[in-house]
Specification:
60 residues; transmembrane helix; membrane; mainly alpha
């Protein structure tokens, strides 16, 4: 099995954790890394929605 037969999404999935392992010496499970990333994105989106839509501006 050569590297050419690996699908593109596998590289998208694996590459960030490989880079972190290479430069920072931290071996992260890709699933853990993407899980943290998705949680972070979710929190940013929720706080943005809360800030712009739910929080009513005070009218003087």
């Amino acid at each position: 099995m050569g590297l050419e037969s690996v699908p593109w999404w596998f590289w998208v999935y694996m590459y960030p954790s490989m880079l972190i392992g290479k430069y920072f010496g931290i071996n992260l499970n890709p699933m853990v890394l993407w899980g943290c990333f998705l949680v972070l994105v979710f929190l940013i989106v929720c706080s943005g929605i809360w800030f712009f839509f739910i929080r009513k501006p005070h009218k003087e």
